[in-house]
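User: I need a structural model of Glycosyltransferase from Mesorhizobium opportunistum for a docking pre-check later this week. Nothing fancy, just the predicted structure tokens so I can convert them on my end. Input:
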Amino acid sequence: MPSTTVLFELPRVGVIITCHNYRAYVGDAIRSVLAQTYQKWDCVIVDDASTDGSAEHVRQLLETIGDPRLRLLVRPQNGGQIAAFRDGFAAGDQPFVAFLDADDVWLPNFLVAHLSAHLNLVHPASLSSSDVLVVDRDRVVLGGTYVMMRKPRSEMDPRGVAVPPTSRLGEIAADIGYSTEHAITYFGPRTYGWLWAPTSSMVFRRGALEPVLAFPFQSRMSTDYLTATCAHLAAGSLLLSECLGLYRLHGANASTNDAYAGGHVQQTPAHNASHIKLGAEVLDYVLADAERLDAINGKGFVSEVLAHHLRRFGKLFDDPRIAPFLSPRNRWRWWRKRAVRHLRRLFGQA
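Assistant: Understood. Predicted structure tokens for Glycosyltransferase:
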């Protein structure tokens, strides 16, 4: 009689809920993790020195729930989102890691859909991101998609590669046999720019995220931009078109109190002003990790990344570390733009 012994185990997922003064919302986030159809997870709630009683609220909630997969980690002083990410990441060793902002919520199939996508038989990736419903503080739905996410809309993005249902692992692993009519698209490391929905939509491979969180970034917030942009450079991203979470707009996060008008979610002026700093942080990471990135993706990859990055963040052109990595054509453009900037400054002083 043939053996029915399972020859492999499905991976555990490390869930990290980051909380700072979100007592009103964090319970919803925790309950949404408990409601996941994929149950092989461990969850740490990182309280970043909240002053609204969030930590005690979570502690009491966990005592009531009594699930050993849930634990609380309280930071002694506020370090910002990236410090909470690092502490939560260091607290586990699971091969996949998902971050959930304390003011957001996952729908029950979030983890199983992401694991099913990650364990496809065609395109392994550094991270995955799914679409979200945009809701207000009371979870009233304001929008059915996050429009800044790169997903099939009127036509397939020419850089994206569809991952067909027949290439997923579900046929031999029933626990992730997730069926969906929504497209899953793979974008390789040579697809640049923002591709994803926000933090709570993302699941990372630990091996891709580890060198990113180990890098000494100085920005305290917008950690999803840093982690997704840098991890993507190793093995690309999988984008799930299905809405698998709720992204909450309530005015106390990076979004404004303005009424949601559709289109791009409006961000606070302070958040928008931080973009050039974030661009500089990504530049530092790419330059520091250039040898490894070229070894993974082929010689000249870092040159392509920098050429795109400088088109996005023109103010970074003055950095002298860039020139050796540029192609002869882009190097000529770089010198020309530096010369023009220098002359303009002289003219302005005159």
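Before docking, keep this in mind: The CA atoms of residues 89 and 210 lie 8 Å apart.
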